[in-house]
Specification:
There is one protein chain. The chain has about 210 residues and is an alpha+beta fold. It is about 30% helix and about 35% strand. The chain contains seven helices and nine strands. The chain has helices at about 10, 15-30, 35, 75-85, 110-120, 120-130, 140-155, and strands at about 40-45, 50-55, 60, 65-70, 85-90, 95-105, 165-180, 190-195, 200-205. Strands 1, 2, 3, 4, 5, 6, 7, 8 and 9 form a nine-stranded antiparallel beta sheet that branches. Strand 3 (about 60) and strand 4 (about 65-70) form a beta hairpin. Helix 6 (about 120-130) crosses helix 7 (about 140-155). The protein starts with 8 loop residues before the first helix and ends with a strand.
Length: about 210
């Protein structure tokens, strides 16, 4: 049975980011693995109007928005930048809560992407150079050969530079909805809509 999470306006306050940050911290205490606590679905729309969705890992969250990292030239990165808008969902079942956000997207500053890239395991750094994300390849041997090439290229290098086509994407939320599970199915839904420098809070029917 899923846990209940009662959402009261007096507890959440006038802005939603603080609540989302607290839930994320709580989720990481339960399951510290990124896949277990930081997975979120991000949706974009292609130039032909076709939607697509995928799971990415939330890597940073502050008043500016939700940040994840990817190849800018893959389908995900291209659609997000071209369309300039996205939506995301995070479901923390072990906490009985869910977050939805919609807004515009932007590239994270280069120095911020560099700093994050430097924290990645060496194999992950090399992997960013190996894969032409979303491109059609003949077979897996292509990746194996590219990996060998890149390992040779960076052999002996103390630091591996970040590819220019790889970095962070930030979703700047215009709408955030907080959802709390109730066993009677009358779930709590609080929607926050950006209004200038603040937020307008509304309660929605489940």
């Amino acid at each position: 049975m899923r846990p209940e999470l009662e959402l009261f306006e007096s507890d959440i306050g006038d802005e939603p980011i603080s609540a989302v940050r607290e839930w994320w911290i709580a989720a990481r205490e339960i399951d510290p693995s990124p896949e277990g606590s930081s997975a979120m679905a991000v949706a974009s729309v292609g130039a032909n109007g076709s939607p697509s969705n995928r799971i990415v890992l939330l890597r940073a969250l502050d008043e500016r928005g939700f940040v994840f990292y990817t190849n800018y030239e893959g389908r995900k990165g291209s659609e997000l930048v071209l369309g300039n808008r996205a939506a995301l969902v995070i479901h923390w079942a072990e906490l009985g809560c869910q977050v939805r956000a919609e807004g515009v997207v932007e590239h994270v500053a280069a120095d911020e992407s560099d700093a994050y890239f430097a924290t990645r395991p060496r194999g992950h750094q090399i992997g960013a150079w190996v894969s032409p994300q979303s491109s059609v390849i003949d077979d897996r041997a292509f990746l194996v050969n590219r990996l060998a090439e890149m390992e040779m290229r960076f052999e002996g290098a103390e630091e591996i530079p970040r590819p220019e086509y790889w970095g962070g994407i930030r979703l700047i939320p215009e709408v955030i909805e907080l959802w709390g599970n109730r066993s009677d199915r009358l779930h709590d839904r609080l929607r926050f809509t950006r209004d200038g420098g603040g937020w307008v809070r509304e309660r929605l029917a489940p």
